Amino acid sequence: MQATLQAKDFKSDLKPIWCPGCGDFGVLSAIQRALAAIGRPPHEIAFVSGIGCSSRIPGYTTAYGFNTIHGRPLPIAQGIKLAKPELLVLAAGGDGDGFSIGGGHVAHVVRRNIDITYIVMDNQIYGLTKGQLSPTSPRGLKSVTSPYGSLEGPINPLLSVLAYGAGYVAQGTPADMAALAKLIEDGIRYPGFAFINVQSPCITYGSVDAQLKQQKAAMQDLRALGHDSSNKLGAYALAEEYGTKLYTGVFYRKPVAEPTMEGLAAERHAMLREKALPKSDILKLFAPA
Amino acid sequence: MRQDLVIGMAGAGGDGVIAAGEALIAAAAIDGYHARMTKSFGSQIRGGESSFRLRMSTAPVLSLGGALDVAVALNWDDFLRFGAELPVGGRTTVIYDSKTGVATSQIPLTGITPAEVVAVPIDQMARDLVGNDRAKNTVVLGLLSGWFGLPAAAILSGLKKRFAAKGEETVKRNEDAFNAGVKYAQEHPLAKGSTLAPVAKTTAKRLIADGNTMCGAAAIVAGCRFFGGYPITPSTEIMQFLTKELFKYGGTVLQAEDEIAGVGAAIGASFAGVKAMTATSGPGMSLKSEMLGLATIAELPLVCVNVQRGGPSTGIPTKSEQSDLFQAVFSAHGDVVRPVLAPVSVADIFGITIEAFNIAEAYQTPVIVLSDGDIGQRKETVDPFNVDAFPIVERDRPAPDELAAYTRFKLTESGVSPISEPGMAGGNYLASGIEHTQSGAPTAAGSVHAEMTAKRSRKLDPLKKRKDLFQEYGRAGAPLALVSWGSVAGIAQEALTLAEREGLRVKLLVPRLLYPVAEEIYRAFFKSVQGGLIVEQSYQGQLWRLLRMFVNVPDGVEPFARPSAVPISPEELVTRLKHIAVELQRGRMPEAAPVE
Q1: CB–CB of A69 and B262 under 8 A?
Q2: What is residue B590's predicted lDDT score, i.e. its pLDDT?
Q3: Measured between alpha carbons, how far is B518 from A57 in angstroms, rounded to an integer?
Q4: pTM for the full predicted model
Q5: Is residue B237 predicted with pLDDT exceeding 70?
Q6: pLDDT at B5 > cutoff 80
Q7: How far apart are CA A31 and CA A181, in angstroms?
Q8: Which among B479, B478, B498, B501 is positioned nearest to B490, based on CA atoms?
Q9: Nearest-CA distance from B572 to chain A in Å?
Q10: What is the per-residue pLDDT for B525?
Q11: How many of the other CB atoms lie within 10 Å of CB of A93?
């Protein structure tokens, strides 16, 4: 552990492709700050993403990065964590990556409770492909693929992940970068799967909260509202208001964390190690009755 | 005395047909025979019909043979559902349960008159001796042992082991049922059947394996410590085997939520520095293809086994085919050169799987092992071999002093650049599915893309020289050729022997490396060739077409390609070869078989 790490130690030489003013800059800074607070050196961190503007983010850090394919950061991150549990594993992507094409993977990483921190930069629009409808776009939104207004309602990421049974569910915005960094840090420290939805505005194709300032005005801190993050029913009620209210903070943190899959796998390894045949004897498995 | 026996048996689900086959092949192995067995089912989950076909011989078994020597029908309806798999011929001895009440003359065998048809009160004997009809299969084992000299002691010891958990009384009753079958056979000698020559007891005990399990065992030996996959017929036994065994070696198996997640997790594990594998069948391969492209461009080692079945789409899950060759070679967008290997037998999949890991690690690439349902699921006797003799390759990791100025995708002459992994200080890099510079930075520069595409392609060039991945049989300068791959190669090998016996000059090439195409090896092979057959279980003749992209395949060499419904037999290959030979002698180009 190196207590002396600073946010700049996690800043790579690559220049972000994001539009000036993009919310993702704030998310990047928050992640760098959180990682500095955690104190693990960059080479012990694997940072996986999918495809989209936000998914460029691992390359802007000094961690081992893997910018994969659309919708699939979670399976790849899980493989990394299961293969080398000693690594700190982060996954990131956009709302389309996480809840459209990759939506099927979220439930499963949650039920396996693999210790990965998943950060979704949710801007309710497809930015990299220039402004199409996203799974979190509000009903009626006009976009290049919904010129008369969207006919579909949004998915609710917070409610979905809560319902799947995640042990840590939070929401932040780059408008309060320090608070977001703290949420990410807490998510990393949580011993199991952690989900952080970040309302990261797209200033180019921005739909609802196009400006950080507006966003800041709309923010309501969950703790200030008196929400107890161990109260799951309360978390559900607050998460229901996704799309109408911008709550920030921890919706839910399981008071007693459940075992992680990689932890259980390690127990199984220890239990079965004695039964492994030496390599040269493996054909004994094929002896006829 | 017969030295080779092909037995087929069919009955209703629950009749214990497969168990009988497994008892026979186990006994054959214990007594030193070579044997091979396939099982076939209807598509029902429970009930339905099931069958096995077993060939045992004093010589190595290369195919399941032609028409059955012995056919056992526990009932006719179920037996006749396997017309193609259990072909009855003029030399077949047919044994059936007299309970089915079908008179001999009425057996609907589409015009074939078997050598002998014997009705036995199988069901009645089972009821009398065991008290229910569950022991019909044991009675049949006794009959086969009595009539064909199959090793009684070995079968009995297998039965004892199998029923031990159910108590001594069950063991005893089954022994009685077996002995009753033996006795019945002795009291009712066959008119035309004769016994199998017993093999000398000095023969070393053989092993019995199916290709899928053998593949899993090889993965463990190769150093695989992560498997991600999704259940799909006929590949699932690979995952099931590893779920049981891999945890013992500190490895982990993830039964993923879908095929994409399965291969994705394996890619993640490989990125983390651990040897990783996924296995699937056709539809799963379709889903995995985008991930395979990712592993190619990110230059990550990965072994992906495709146990082929009949397609397209869901196709025939329970029938083996070789029609995924094009998919294995081409299914990814962009310029991808990806090694494709194919085993020819259950024993061979062991070495091929290890080789796949070695190639994956050496060249930092996904490698496809193109197995098929036949190799994957059939049981076969395997001579014990030295597992430690297989060299194991590890990926080229940067040395500590190289990490000071580390460049992950460095352009090297060989195209291979040392690969670091998370945990390695100084090796930090960005892996990506997006085109990247030598350092890993994303780029859209055409010149970099061209360089990197060439790098990824040329690093596999040495594979084209790998003569050890090709088997050649027959006379070197022969004018007639057979080329065959995968499970069908054994049939071609038998055809070669038959053809030589008939005075034809033939040679056989069996590629176990299908891609990249080893142009020089084929060129040398085809040099003396005027005509021949490229044999595979597909409709399009995919290997024939693929080779013609890269090699001057002589015009007289035609595809012998047929999808899986009717197995290819050595005899029909010889018939076609003879025809080609005659045409060549007349100095005319042989008339080509029509190809769609």
Answers
A1: no
A2: 47
A3: 42
A4: 0.95
A5: yes
A6: yes
A7: 6
A8: B498
A9: 34
A10: 98
A11: 30
